[in-house]
């Protein structure tokens, strides 16, 4: 595979941008490859500057549930751009998107738009602290809630990938209020509440953990967290930045029937433009300025292009066949895992809706400690060989593959054919 142009751009980028990229995992460092630079994408396919076409299983890490450059989303963005790109004043379209989000997510009476998932979780934490008058937060080991200081203790995503326990630049005093528990362990959650119950402002959880690879909640886990938070007066925050509008149109809360106090969102609600949001019950959200006293603001928040992309995306998703896509993805993942097992590999797959992760281990995966058993060496070989054959996978064993409504049976069959050619 000739990736000369990508390599040239990467060499130049390395002199101008730290690590040559604007977000760490993209650099493909842990799989020891140069990143592929992208020229364009359409549907389920992505094209590099070297003129190569790939079947895309990253989907921009989540936003592209409709596939790339969907005609209706494109049209909405282009038409919005002609009317001006930012006003710093309210618009009708942000009201329409807020209405759509609140209608979709059962726990949200009100929502505030921001520009990224990171901003959403930082703001939700501030609100939870203000509402409860408490400082501590609980997060999951290997859970990722963006790069806000308070969340950078034992986080997933790029931090799991690089085994960085936290990061320099975050004062100890900032993370001293961050308590950690393993995912899917209700006993550990109980213990932490028994010990710190009257100091805990919020319990943050990705309802389906998506940043240690995909790990699904065991039966009763999310309801157990709901009950604990209610008992101790802490706010339950579902970080639905990945799961929102993906595991169902009603998010994980709709799918599992467990209502959080606050929800953080991102990715899909921006249709591929920079958007995040947080929402919840009116009694909490009314505390946000200028309705209330908790400050949070943004020059580009509710940006008309981003709102147009988000609204066009949700318009389509509202009527989309989620169950049909889930069945197709499940059949594909089972077959993919089967092919790899036939090659003598131990594979555990986790799947829900249009996302999945293959873990190269023979033990079941329920939390971050289990995830760490999975072989990153086998993953690296799998990644590199699949990439050579035109399959664009997340360059990390600890990420979730994202499938879109644009993926065809032909895409799945081609991917399976490539898997059959793998050598270990
Ligand atoms: N929360 C979750 C669950 C995420 O997966 C991410 C990003 N992958 C974030 C928060 C942060 O979002 P952003 O990268 O848009 O800041």
UniProtKB/TrEMBL annotation:
The modification N6-(pyridoxal phosphate)lysine is found at residue 267. Its EC number is 5.4.3.8. Keywords: Cytoplasm, Isomerase, Porphyrin biosynthesis, Pyridoxal phosphate. Pathway: Porphyrin-containing compound metabolism; protoporphyrin-IX biosynthesis; 5-aminolevulinate from L-glutamyl-tRNA(Glu): step 2/2. Pfam families: Aminotran_3. Its cofactor is pyridoxal 5'-phosphate. One of its GO terms (molecular function) is glutamate-1-semialdehyde 2,1-aminomutase activity. Its main location: cytoplasm. The keyword NADP does not apply. It catalyses: (S)-4-amino-5-oxopentanoate = 5-aminolevulinate. It is found in: Cytoplasm. It comes from the Bacteria. Belongs to the class-III pyridoxal-phosphate-dependent aminotransferase family. HemL subfamily. Homodimer. This is Glutamate-1-semialdehyde 2,1-aminomutase. It comes from Taurinivorans muris.
């Amino acid at each position: 595979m000739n990736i000369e142009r990508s390599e040239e751009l990467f060499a130049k980028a390395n002199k101008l941008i730290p690590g040559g990229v604007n977000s760490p995992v993209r650099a493909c460092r842990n799989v020891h490859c140069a990143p592929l630079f992208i020229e364009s994408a359409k549907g389920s396919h992505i094209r590099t500057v070297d003129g190569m076409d790939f079947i895309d299983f990253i989907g921009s890490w989540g936003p592209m549930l409709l596939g790339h450059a969907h005609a209706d989303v494109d049209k909405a963005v282009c038409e919005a751009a002609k009317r001006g790109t930012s006003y710093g004043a309210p618009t009708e379209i942000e009201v329409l998107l807020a209405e759509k989000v609140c209608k979709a997510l059962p726990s949200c009476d009100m929502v505030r738009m921001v520009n990224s998932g990171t901003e959403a979780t930082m703001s939700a934490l501030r609100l939870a602290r203000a509402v409860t008058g408490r400082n501590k937060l609980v997060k999951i080991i290997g859970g990722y809630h963006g790069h806000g200081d308070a969340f950078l203790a034992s986080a997933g995503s790029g931090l799991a990938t690089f085994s960085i326990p936290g990061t320099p630049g975050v004062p100890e005093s900032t993370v001293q209020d961050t308590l950690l528990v393993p995912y899917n362990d209700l006993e550990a959650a109980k213990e932490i509440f028994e010990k710190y119950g009257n100091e805990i402002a919020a319990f943050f959880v990705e309802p389906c953990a998506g940043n240690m690879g995909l790990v699904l909640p065991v039966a009763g886990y999310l309801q157990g967290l709901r009950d604990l938070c209610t008992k101790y007066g802490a706010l339950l925050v579902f970080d639905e930045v990945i799961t929102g509008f993906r595991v169902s149109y009603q998010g994980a809360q709709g799918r599992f029937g467990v209502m959080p106090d606050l929800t953080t969102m991102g990715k899909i609600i921006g249709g591929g433009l920079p958007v995040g949001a947080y929402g919840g019950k009116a009694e909490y959200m009314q505390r946000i300025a200028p309705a209330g006293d908790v400050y949070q603001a943004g020059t580009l928040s509710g940006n008309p292009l981003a709102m147009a992309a988000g609204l066009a995306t949700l318009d389509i998703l509202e009527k989309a066949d989620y169950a049909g896509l889930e069945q197709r993805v499940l059949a594909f993942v089972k077959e993919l895992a089967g092919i790899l097992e036939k090659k003598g590999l131990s594979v555990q797959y986790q799947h829900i809706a249009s996302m999945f992760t293959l873990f190269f281990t023979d033990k079941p995966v329920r939390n971050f400690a289990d995830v760490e058993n999975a072989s990153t060496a086998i993953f690296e070989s799998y990644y590199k060989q699949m990439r050579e054959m035109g399959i664009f996978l997340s360059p990390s064993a600890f990420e979730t593959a994202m499938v879109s409504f644009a993926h065809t049976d032909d895409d799945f069959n081609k991917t399976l054919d490539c898997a059959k050619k793998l050598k270990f």
